[in-house]
Amino acid sequence: MTTSVSGGLAIEGLHKVLGGRSIIHSLDMAVRPGELVSLLGPSGCGKTTTLRMIAGFLTPDAGSIKVGGREVVNLGPEHRPSAMVFQNYALWPHMTVAKNVGFPLKLRKRPKAEIAERVDAALTLVNLMHHKDSRPARISGGEQQRTALARALVQEPELLLLDEPLSNLDAKLRVKVREDIREIQQRLGITTVIVTHDQEEAMSVSDRIAVMNNGRIEQFSTPADLYSTPATEFVATFIGSLNRLEGRIEDGRVVPGAGVVGIRPEDVVFGPEAHPRGLAATVERVVPRGHFAELHLRREDAELRSYVTGVPPAVGTSGCARIEKWLEFEDGQLVGQGTPA
Amino acid sequence: MPRVLSRGVVVLLAAVLALFIIGPLAWLAVRAFAASWTYPDLLPDAWTLRWWSVVFSDRALGVAVQNSLFFAPITVLVSAAICLPAAYAFARFEFPGRRFFLIGVFAANSFPKMGLFVSLAALFYALNLMNTILGILVVHVLGTVVFMTWIPAAAFAAVPRSLEEAARDAGASKLRTFFSVTLPIALPGILVAAIMSFLSSFDEAQGTYLVGAPDYMTMPTQMYSLVLNYPTQVAAVFSILLAIPSVALLLAAHKHIVGGHLAEGFQIK
Amino acid sequence: MTAELEAGPAVVVRPATAAAAGRTRGLLMALPPMVLIAFFIGFPVVLAFGFSLGFTGGLNRTIALIGQNVHTAHGIVPTLSAYAEMFTNARFLGDLVVTVVVTVVSTTIVIALAVGIGLYLKFSGGLIGKVLSALAVVPLFIPVVIASWAILGFYSANGFLRSVAAQFGVDFPIWSYTLVTVVIGSVWTSLPFATLLVSSGLQAVPQAMIDAARDAGASFWRVVASVVVPMAGVPIIIATTFTAIGILGSFTVPYFTGPNSPNMLGVDMSNYFSAFNQPQQAVVIAFIVFAIASGIAAVYVWANFRSAKESGAV
């Protein structure tokens, strides 16, 4: 399979009203060539609407969509250089796996020999040659997913779009398939946009993530940056876990105030010995989370969740809990980060 | 739909279809009020209600109306009593010969009707069913079996088992579950079947004529002789009367006559 | 050992007996309509088949005595002479051709209209879509006798079309009592059932399948031809077979609107039975029509089997 020449995606001022309600508010986004970007957000945030506008199934009320520098906003989906993997895969049940994958090439009137060759290459890439002549109904969910991926890749698109590609797979398969998708995407260097509501999925495959809420991009950045420096309170709570407390932090304790403080559970340290920056705390609940445990701690100023590795303390254990790092928000926006003096 | 079919073309085609479907009916309806009509005028020379009084004062025609309104509901009830348990069995039980029975219903339906009635004649003579109410009922019910088994079977099959299990779990008996959960959910499909059966019985002419005439004339069989023996206008009046129950049914049931129940019902599973 | 025996019946045998009970109950519940069909359709049809082969004894005795021109078999050897008589009858052969042609033409028009209306409903909908689908269902509620009568008048010598044409000085052809009105009447009466079946089949094609095809680069008509129609293939085939079988055996429409000769075999059956008093010939025609219908029915059964196979059930 040849590597696609990917030209990136540029969205400017995208606006969409559906049923009298503004779904997308003047959205801007630039995806670099060869980059994998996730649109992440809760249901109803507008991420699927955005993807469907990029693919051409919905017409925006305003804005521009450029793929590889070419304006595509007035083109139907059949004329756009993008290929999509649908949420339920949308494999045509009356065609075999190979026919499904070959259909886009047949539409482009490629010679039979070329079609056969490229279908084989795409199926080899997703490791599905053994199911070439099977009907979609006869293969597993993971295999259907890979067929849908092959059908998109065979078009050698400038832009690959995936709509919740893993939501119908079981937990174990999901990890495997997302790694496969990432590996293939990097090998071919295809500019890719994935829609997902699963933050772990987005974090593990993306170069950058656009976190969406109420039709706007709250923050568009790398996974590490989103986690360490969330631009808004929404991003902080949506990505990873957060102790959200009203007030501010003074001398290691939470005091009443106008703002909001966010503390990651791993930044709350609990130990049996007293600490100069800590306060007395009691373990109220222990939630095992696999290789670590989540403690629910009661301090005199607040209730805090903390992650510990190794053998967790028993419920009722008394000790000392201190805060190592926190985020400060005002009106939902990040205004500062704090560490103990 | 692409611009290929521009709106104007579509509207034109819709108008042609409207003329094709409604035109003949409207043309006939106007005739019922026509005193006389000169070709090629588009409307009658004069209007009259005379033909209506002819129909209403004719005893034979009145009897035909009565007979039709008697046979159609009875047919639906008898057919439901015979076929609905079978429909439930097709939907919920796996039993020997199930597929054979389903195809049997279809095969029975594809034998040409006129041929069937001709074949039935010998048996009816032997059983003394000729010119009897029972004989006519048998003919009418035979025409409804395909609707009354297939459509409700699909409707029963479409009721999620989990809903029945939830009712059983809540303490309902099997019978109670059927009447409180399964039947209400399957009811729209059964209603469609009942409407199709009613129309089939109401429409049945060939068999009724062979078995019932001249003792038992229904509206459609009466039409046969009307067309030959009365002025066109009388047949037109009678046609309007004959269409009233069906149209009333159409208006009452138009929400339920959706293809889904039919389409589901007509696939053997 | 005892424990195993205890566990055995509780776990394994009970579901089996439950299934067995379901089998018995299912069979009992399914029996009434089957007995009805077997007794009032299956049995007479078998008798009639025997009659058509010249067996004139038993329950066929009365009808064989009343009827004229009856071919009788010698002993237990069936005779095909009644069939031979029909197949050497030029008028019958003409009517056979007419019946097949009218069926093919009418079915083609009905399915084309049904698919057209169904596609418009699926892709455009709106007011026109509603009007189209409402129009197509109307004939379901009009008794066939009336429909035939109304259509006859509409296309007759002093009918609407000729009256309108005459206003412009055009002499429109008279279609009443020709095969044209037989086709028109057959289309008119068969349209609702086919439209309901086909449009619900088209509606059932998931939007994602259509989107996927457009994303792959397919034009509108290509989407229709390669995805929508094949995916609704089973309902379309079912609609086609039912329409064809219905028209093939129809009587009322050709009887009222068609010419005396050539006409469709449904009318011939009635004529041979009532007017000519030749019941054996009527029965022979019925079996010839049934043979053609069975061929069409085989397509239907095959389509159902294919759909079961596609959904992975077989």
From TrEMBL, chain A:
Keywords: ATP-binding, Nucleotide-binding, Transport. Coiled coil: none annotated. PANTHER family: SPERMIDINE/PUTRESCINE IMPORT ATP-BINDING PROTEIN POTA, SPERMIDINE_PUTRESCINE IMPORT ATP-BINDING PROTEIN POTA. It holds the Pfam family TOBE_2. This is ABC-type quaternary amine transporter. Residues 9-239 form the ABC transporter domain. It comes from Kribbella kalugense. The keyword Transport applies. Its EC number is 7.6.2.9. The keyword ATP-binding applies. One of its GO terms (molecular function) is ATP binding. InterPro entries: AAA+_ATPase, ABC_SmlMolc_Importer, ABC_transporter-like_ATP-bd, Mo/tungstate-bd_C_term_dom, P-loop_NTPase, Transp-assoc_OB_typ2. It comes from the Bacteria. One of its GO terms (cellular component) is ATP-binding cassette (ABC) transporter complex.
Automatic annotation (TrEMBL), chain B:
The chain crosses the membrane at residues 69-88, 100-127, 133-157, 178-199, 233-253. Its main location: membrane. The keyword Transmembrane applies. Coiled coil: none annotated. GO terms for biological process: transmembrane transport. One of its GO terms (cellular component) is plasma membrane. It is found in: Cell inner membrane; Cell membrane. It comes from the Bacteria. Keywords: Cell inner membrane, Cell membrane, Membrane, Transmembrane, Transmembrane helix, Transport. It is a multi-pass membrane protein. InterPro entries: MetI-like (IPR000515), MetI-like_sf (IPR035906). Belongs to the binding-protein-dependent transport system permease family. This is Putative spermidine/putrescine transport system permease protein.
From TrEMBL, chain C:
CDD domains: TM_PBP2. Coiled coil: none annotated. One of its GO terms (cellular component) is plasma membrane. The keyword Zinc does not apply. InterPro entries: MetI-like, MetI-like_sf. Pfam families: BPD_transp_1. It is a multi-pass membrane protein. Keywords: Cell membrane, Membrane, Transmembrane, Transmembrane helix, Transport. The chain crosses the membrane at residues 33-55, 96-120, 132-154, 174-199, 220-253, 282-303. One of its GO terms (biological process) is transmembrane transport. Residues 96-300 form the ABC transmembrane type-1 domain. It is found in: Cell membrane. The keyword Transmembrane applies. Belongs to the binding-protein-dependent transport system permease family. CysTW subfamily. This is Carbohydrate ABC transporter membrane protein 1 (CUT1 family).
